[in-house]
Structure formats: C-alpha cells, structure tokens
TrEMBL record:
Gene3D superfamilies: Farnesyl Diphosphate Synthase. One of its GO terms (molecular function) is squalene synthase [NAD(P)H] activity. Its EC number is 2.5.1.21. NCBIfam families: HpnC (TIGR03464). This is Squalene synthase HpnC. GO terms for biological process: terpenoid biosynthetic process. CDD domains: Trans_IPPS_HH. Keywords: Transferase. The keyword Transferase applies.
Amino acid sequence: MPVDHYENFPVASWLLPKRLRRPVEAIYRFARSADDIADEGDAPSAERLRQLAAYHSELDRIESGDIPTDPLFGPLAEAIHAYSIPLAPFRDLLSAFAQDVEKTRYANFGEVMDYCRRSANPVGRLMLHLYGDHDPRHIAYSDAICSSLQLINFLQDIAVDFKKNRVYLPQDELVANHVSETQIAESDPCGMWNTMLLKQVERTRKLLQAGAPLGRQLKGRFGLELRVTILGGETILRKLHADPGCVFNNRPVLTKKDWINMLRRALF
C-alpha cells in the first residue's frame, strides 16, 4: 500500500520519477495536515472547520496569484504554478475532510462512494496530471483504484474508526446482514459478520481489478509505483478474506515479505 500516514497517497517514494518527488511531497503535506485537522487532537468541530476554511482561503490566494500566508502552502503554490495543477482536486479533498468532522454514518454504499470521490480520487487525478496523462480512460481507471484503496483502508480500520465514532460500513448493509454496532464495539465477529465483511471485500476487489490495467499502461517508474500500490491493495484484501475478524484484534498490514513479493511481481 502507499506508505506513511495518509494511506492512499504515494508519498514521493524512491519508485517515483525524481522530478515528481518535490511536487508530490508538497501535495502530500497539504493533504496530511488537512486530514490531521479533521482527525487528530481534541479541538471542537467548529475550530476544525474554521481551520479547514483557512485552507480554502490559501487555495484562493494561490489561484489569484497572491503569496500564501501559511508557509505550508509555499511549496504547494510552486508546484501548482510549475505544473499548472488544477485546484478542484484540492478543494474536493478539503470537502471530504470537512465531512469527516460532521458526518459519522453512511446510509448506503452510494454515500460511501461519494465520499471516496472526494477523499481518494483527487489523489490519483493529481498524480496523473503531474505525469502529464489526461486520457479520460486512464482517469476512470485511476478513480477505480483510488476508491478501492479508500475502501480497503475503511475495512482495515473498522475498529480504529469506531473509536472515533465513525462507521464507514453502509448502514443498510449492516441491517441486511443483522450486524449491529454493538458487535463492532465488542470486537465480536460472530453471527453474520464474516458474510457481511466478505461481501465488502469482494466488491472492493472487483473495483480494484477494474482499475488495475492502468498499472501496465503507464510506463517507467510511475507505472511501477502504481503496480506496487495495486498489489498492496490486493494483499490486504487477501488477508481480510482469510480472516474477516482480524480487523478487531490483528489489523492486516503489509510485512517485509509482502513488500518483497509485491516488488518482484510488479517488476516481472
């Protein structure tokens, strides 16, 4: 999977072309810091939203050609101007982070996917833009990959998110499978838990596979980075499939052996 704290972001790893590392780092810092505003610390909701609104204001300054007042936005402004990066993906990310402050339950899968459209898909679109790829088909592949990675992260973090009073599993599907939030609170994988989670895994796998051709269509180090990312997602899904209850007591992660196997498969 993509590394470090912001799970769906390829953080300027050594696999990326060297010329892209600085702009990717600038974008990552923006996304990471904004996500932390929504998720970390004890600030009240109103203060979190105020800080996110300030990020919108800094984007407005960049768009108008003014110098940002927050030092964090200096490198980002340089990247945006140097690569003519559109601002809509940044605003979509802020919209998703602001939603996390106020919305803690999702009625159905459509609501979850709308969140993914703003919280994850902008990342892939920004990366494709930096790569110079504006093919609509490739953008569609990228959206499928990024949304699936966000869903995988939700499945990994069911217990973690519940401690923050967030449930990203669709409420109607929990009801249909007779799974209650009490089960999540008690880390109880009994009853229909496995059936429900395996349905989530299979749907997510199909979405990831729908976007996977992009990994072979993009050339060079960027394509390699993407193939490793896809394989990381597949690996986590296999672990979830093998043990649907692991989300409660043994959160699935990538091991050193996994990384070696992923890199070997991505190369050959």
